[in-house]
Amino acid sequence: MDLKSNHNSPVLTDPASLSKSRLGLPSNMTPCSPAALPFSSSVSSPRKKLNKDLISECQLDDNDAAYQTWMINYPSALNSFHLITSYAKCKTVALFLDYDGTLSPIVDNPDHAFMSSAMRAAVREAANHFPTAIISGRSRDKVHEFVKLSELYYAGSHGMDIMGPIRISESVGDHPVCIKTTDSKGKEVHLFQPAREFLPMINEVYKSLIEITSNIIGVKVENNKFCVSVHYRNVDKRMWDEVGLRVFGLIKGFPRLRVTHGRKVLEVRPVIDWNKGKAVEFLLESLQLSQRNDVLPIYVGDDRTDEDAFKVLRERIHGFGILVSNVPKETNAYYSLRDPSEVQEFLKSLVRWKKFTASQTEDYNIDLMCIG
Ligand SMILES: [Mg+2]
């Protein structure tokens, strides 16, 4: 899905996965194109069905071939696990995880994007061994409601609402929009909300968006505190452009807001110099990990908004991104995973590796004591 916008008419188009020609496989040279099939279009009905089945099978093979080619540049984080852990050796791994499409499946109703209990257990275990933060486009409260773990740090609204640890470095604690508060368990925390002044405007836009989309069946407008999401996954495809027109039309009247495009969702957010990449930097500083060269940040996410974080890790921090996708996409990530089940496996592998290296270090220390 892509959004092309001109001044008058935004157009919602189909997914921006990479074309075969970009992957070096021009469409007329694919290994199994429909034209190469043995049946003509004038064949009888059973043959037509067989023809259709063959085309589907070939398209599947074709897609898989494109994905395999793409993986040469973005290898599976599971297949490259030894390489990843060789970078991580003797370093503190800091984990940053997106929520929707990364820890939970993408579902028709965004209120039902629950994570499995097995995934929750994997995230909890990971957080027991590595500093771990969830960075989501959802409101902080909403994502906490889904994840239900207190061992983590949470950044909602694309990082515009961060609840972080109190052992915060002075430069972060001195930030004008960073305040000391207590969490639901009474623990002292820092709250960072760089877009706080936008709250009344966001609420106003939320109400207007509900009003102007109320007669389009399937639209779901979600208030994520510092941004508003307009989900159109369940809208008839013929109405997608109408959704875009109405959202852009409204936001024209709010020059301090902008619209970004995610997976079948339009997101209205404040025009401020803040994104998931900045949130990663802020959290690393909060955790006093930013000035050290023995830290390896890893960010796992599936959406365009995660690209800001991948880019920061690639260009400024010595870490790497892992894109969750089962289709080829342009990305700033270094590695890939196909879906949340592979994310779960990756988290479990990281914990196993951590436990193993910890036991090795213990054995080594015991040996040293014995020699001593
Ligand atoms: Mg996501």
From TrEMBL:
<dbReference type="InterPro" id="IPR044651">
    <property type="entry name" value="OTSB-like"/>
</dbReference>
<keyword id="KW-0378">Hydrolase</keyword>
<dbReference type="Pfam" id="PF02358">
    <property type="entry name" value="Trehalose_PPase"/>
</dbReference>
<dbReference type="GO" id="GO:0005992">
    <property type="term" value="P:trehalose biosynthetic process"/>
</dbReference>
<protein>
    <recommendedName>
        <fullName>Trehalose 6-phosphate phosphatase</fullName>
        <ecNumber>3.1.3.12</ecNumber>
    </recommendedName>
</protein>
<feature type="region of interest" description="Disordered">
    <location>
        <begin position="1"/>
        <end position="23"/>
    </location>
</feature>
<dbReference type="GO" id="GO:0004805">
    <property type="term" value="F:trehalose-phosphatase activity"/>
</dbReference>
<feature type="compositionally biased region" description="Polar residues">
    <location>
        <begin position="1"/>
        <end position="20"/>
    </location>
</feature>
<comment type="pathway">
    <text>Glycan biosynthesis; trehalose biosynthesis.</text>
</comment>
<dbReference type="InterPro" id="IPR003337">
    <property type="entry name" value="Trehalose_PPase"/>
</dbReference>
<comment type="function">
    <text>Removes the phosphate from trehalose 6-phosphate to produce free trehalose.</text>
</comment>
<comment type="similarity">
    <text>Belongs to the trehalose phosphatase family.</text>
</comment>
